[in-house]
Predict the 3D structure of the following.
Amino acid sequence: MRAVRVHEVGGPEALSIDDVEPAEPGEGQVRVRVAAAGVNFIDVYFRTGAYPADPPVPIGMEGAGEVEAVGPGVTDVAAGDLVAWASVPGSYAETVVAPAGVLVPVPDGVDPETAAALMLQGMTAHYLATDTAALGPGSTALVHAAAGGVGLLLIQIAKRLGATVYGTVSTAEKEQLARGAGADEVIRYTETDFTAAVKELTGGRGVDVVYDSVGKATFDASMASLRPRGTLVLFGQSSGAVPPVDPQRLNSSGSLYLTRPTLAHYTAERDELLRRASDVFGWVRDGALNVRIDRVHPLDDAADAHRRLEGRETAGKLLLRP
């Protein structure tokens, strides 16, 4: 089978299409024919070495497809089932072998590409809004990269929970997308100081929570956009890693909270994984959550997909179709 791997870390050109012998599923494992794989910044982090791994590094974590074979001890899924996942290394490939416990069933009414687009970003938006900094009526939130894959979903879920949501974007086109997702106000950070805009929108108080996937370029201004005892949720670093922070800054800035969550810790128990997946799949199936797929690339164009993602040329989800 064909699979995307990295033999030496670097730019998008480091992504290599290799011919690899398909693995047989072992005890508790399942082999899946990949219908679509999600393209995410975590894939970039492994490609560049920001997340170290021994080469050759299998790239891709998210996808959906049809079960081809099951190993001994697997009873929850069978050949022919449509399943999806968010944490299977090597998902940029024609087939993957995964532990059965990380796969979730895709319900009728949800196609494989939508399922692949939902798993990592949809469940991330779910845990951010419902657990990490739980939103509700009266809450105020600032969402960076509001027209990105997570951003558009997070806005919709936050509005579903009753929050007032502000978003930051770079262009007029992305502003329209964020407003279409339900954002109460959208700030073009290329033209306006978003901290000043947030303070004006909130009568000088600041927001309850900032959801920041950008990192280095926005961290200080994100902190300055919070109300006293507000929460900065740093869940990505698309602009680079944030330098070390003196905890005293949290005190002097208003007894703030800072957290750096990851999806794996919010889906560690199977019951929790199934609950989050069931919620987002159900909302999509019922028309309550819209998933915007920006573009679907063939596997051979994985490098171009990474260039578009890193160049912030996307509005919604990028997928690969093996």
Remarks:
- The chain is about 30% helix and 25% strand.
